[in-house]
Write a structure and sequence with these properties.
Largest sheet of chain B: 2 strands, antiparallel
Distance between the termini of chain A: 39 Å
Oligomer: heterodimer
Strand order of the largest sheet of chain B: 1-2
Number of strands of chain A: 20
Number of helices of chain B: 15
Largest interface: A-B, 32 and 26 residues
Structural class of chain A: alpha+beta
Shape of chain A: elongated
Helix content of chain B: over 70%
Strand content of chain A: 25-35%
Strand content of chain B: under 5%
């Protein structure tokens, strides 16, 4: 068990900057998820922590020791790969015990650890099988077992669920969470799936183009995104961004979306946005769940407007509605019984108490 | 290899097909047609050799049906297997082939591992270079090699020419490049994550090679072994050039030099010797066939 610290870590591949100087403090027992689109540097960061990639600049510390030049085997880490990377010629038990056998642990202890890990992962029956006789989910369990028996300082997961089908992925996600609750080893987990990130992480690190966009708990990222990238990446369907500007009308500040539609700033946000320059091009960030069907008793800050729906997507417990505001596509989530239909007019309510204002140019949430 | 080529020959014929099963039936028929043709073509010479080996010299030279044995005799076999000379050729060939296989593997496996996995400066060029050396024919190499050995012998006083063991140094020039090339291919097909997992598990490069790569690439290893053995066993030009004394000869050269006296061909014994000489590679091949076919990488990673 140990904490992991990254200080101004840079990775260059020839001239391409894969990781552009990131700082990250991971405390003991913490479950950290690195999330971001392909090529954002998350896997490279993980591989640098593992020691599989050299770092170009900066420092990586595990348990307080700088490990920049320490080979992977001496870093006391265990890694689970996307394609499992099980040794095909070894049985499940041999796969799991390979690391311990290399370090010449006594046989009795190896057996005890393998048995314990197999029990934890519910693969006791499979212990004498070869990897090719296992299903994808079982292979992934074995790969985790191989990590657990080593009892390392840090677990590293490199998109471990990407090769599984959707149903199994949800199941294994819960398994991973359970395992972490039991063994409490510091974990760094890489994924491109924001749902996986939100559900597993103590803290999520959102990366983009080799930089960290934001670090926070799942709730912080969801409710207080720092940038447009984070706001758009976290949450599904994604947050809507509607071009807007602020204007003064009869002593109150209004937010104008289109020629027809303008709303007064909600009382909760007025103080925060009042000082913004009126000419600035802004974006209104609003999540689909804050665009719902109109009903008679609306709270303060919830404003109504009429629109014509382009497309509706019934999901069962809700219906997603898509419409345009001056050419900007917008998504809302309404009750399935609200009467939403393709091409039909509808009165919607926008909960401005949960709005965000973003600078259109810099993408910073104001 | 050959069966693959034949399998493909079937569907290329334009046959009107109504369904998948019909398609398969025709492909199978064509496959069998070409396989039978292939088998006849390649099995006729050994069959003829077997027939001839069972005949006495008198019957061979008599004008009877050459495809039938009227007075079968094992005298050719008895004579060869009781002749010290022939057993000596057999012994020389065996020793050389076994040592060459071992030497080849000891060089090829680490070389292939380094070229396939350790990305060092010039590794790609080196890998191509290894293959290019294989393209140089032995008929081009034997004179310079002879000269080299003569010079070494002159300076060091160590007798190298006309000794069977000199071939142990020479055959690897044929076997090592090709075996390395085969092994590079097999090692390169092992997923990168497998050695990364091993490294994280605490394995050194050598342990990764011996405990992961060699077992996983065993079919490739066996292919390379069979190749090295066959090349050493069947090599003719080098032993013909580098060894001359009867007791230093290997099987192929021994048979042709001792059983052909001027223009007198002892056909019965030549055929018998050739058949007996072909047996060891056949036996080895039969034993290793199962491994050869088994795909051991299945299940290592997804897909």
């Amino acid at each position: 068990m140990a904490d992991v610290t990254l200080r101004k870590v840079v990775k260059l591949y020839d001239d391409v900057e894969a990781v552009r100087g990131i700082d990250l403090d991971i405390s003991d027992h913490e479950f950290i998820v690195l999330v971001g689109p392909s090529g954002c540097g998350k896997s490279t960061t993980l591989r640098m922590i593992a020691g599989l990639e050299d770092i170009t600049d900066g420092d990586i510390m595990i348990g307080g020791d700088v490990v920049n030049d320490v080979p992977p085997k001496d870093r006391d880490i265990a890694m689970v790969f996307q394609n499992y990377a099980l040794y095909p010629h070894m049985t499940v038990a041999e796969n799991m015990s390979f690391g311990l056998r290399l370090k010449h642990y006594p046989k009795a202890e190896i057996n005890a650890r393998v048995t314990e890990a197999a029990r934890l992962l519910d693969i006791t029956d499979l212990i004498n099988r070869k990897p090719k006789q296992l299903s994808g989910g079982q292979r992934q369990r074995v790969a985790m077992g191989r990590a657990i028996v080593r009892n390392p300082k840090v677990f590293l997961f490199d998109e471990p669920l990407s090769n599984l089908d959707a149903k199994l992925r949800v199941q294994m996600r819960i398994e991973i969470k359970k395992v972490h609750q039991k063994v409490r080893t510091t974990t760094v987990y890489v994924t491109h799936d924001q749902v996986e990130a939100m559900t597993l992480a103590d803290r999520v690190v959102v990366m983009n183009k080799g930089r960290i966009e934001q670090i926070g708990t799942p709730n912080e990222l969801y409710h207080k995104p720092a940038t447009r990238f984070v706001a758009g990446f976290i949450g599904s369907p994604a947050m809507n961004f509607i071009p807007c500007r602020l204007e003064d009308v009869a002593g109150t500040v209004q937010i104008r979306l289109t020629d027809r539609i303008a709303f007064p700033l909600p009382p909760a946000r007025a103080a925060r946005y009042n000082a913004l320059p009126r000419s600035e091009k802004l974006l209104l960030g609003i999540r689909p769940e804050h665009l719902t069907e109109w009903h008679a008793h609306l709270e303060p800050g919830v404003e109504t407007f009429d629109t014509v729906l382009d497309v509706t997507e019934p999901m069962g417990m809700e219906t997603l509605v898509y419409f345009g505001l001056d050419g900007t596509p917008v998504c809302g989530r309404v009750d399935p019984n609200a009467g939403a239909a393709d091409g039909a007019p509808m009165r919607l309510a926008m909960d401005l108490n949960n709005m965000h204002l973003l600078n259109d140019e810099t993408g910073v949430v104001l | 290899m050959s069966t693959l080529a034949i399998d493909k020959a079937g569907p290329t014929r334009k046959v009107k097909l109504s369904s998948m099963s019909r398609d398969r039936t025709w492909a199978l028929r064509w496959s069998y047609f070409f396989l039978v043709l292939f088998a006849i073509f390649f099995l006729t010479p050994p069959a003829y050799m077997l027939i001839t080996s069972l005949k006495s010299s008198a019957e061979i030279s008599a004008a009877t049906n050459p495809w039938w044995v009227f007075h079968p005799t094992l005298s050719n076999y008895v004579e060869l297997l009781t002749s010290n000379q022939f057993l000596r050729f057999f012994w020389n060939s065996s020793m050389i082939s076994i040592i060459v296989v071992i030497v080849t593997m000891l060089i090829s496996i680490p070389a292939a591992f380094a070229l396939a996995r350790m990305k060092f400066w010039g590794s790609a060029t080196l890998a191509t270079g290894v293959f290019l050396t294989y393209l140089v024919p032995d008929s081009l190499l034997f004179i310079p090699l002879f000269k080299m050995l003569a010079v070494i012998q002159e300076f060091t006083g160590v007798t190298l020419l006309n000794r069977w063991y000199v071939l142990v140094f020479i055959y690897p020039t044929l076997t090592v490049p090709f075996c390395t090339w085969i092994m590079i291919g097999y090692f390169a097909s092992i997923p990168k994550e497998l050695d990364e997992a091993a490294i994280i598990d605490g394995a050194s490069w050598l342990q990764t090679l011996t405990r992961i790569f060699i077992p996983v690439a065993l079919p490739g290893l066996i292919a390379a072994t069979i190749f090295a053995f066959t090349v050493s066993w069947a090599q003719f030009l080098y032993p013909l050039v580098f060894t001359t004394s009867i007791d230093q000869l290997v099987l192929p050269v021994g048979i042709t030099t001792t059983l052909i006296k001027g223009d007198v061909f002892n056909w019965g014994q030549i055929m018998t010797g050739a058949l007996l000489g072909a047996a060891p590679p056949l036996v080895i091949y039969a034993f290793l066939m199962d491994y050869y076919i088994a795909g051991l990488t299945a299940g290592a990673t997804k897909g």
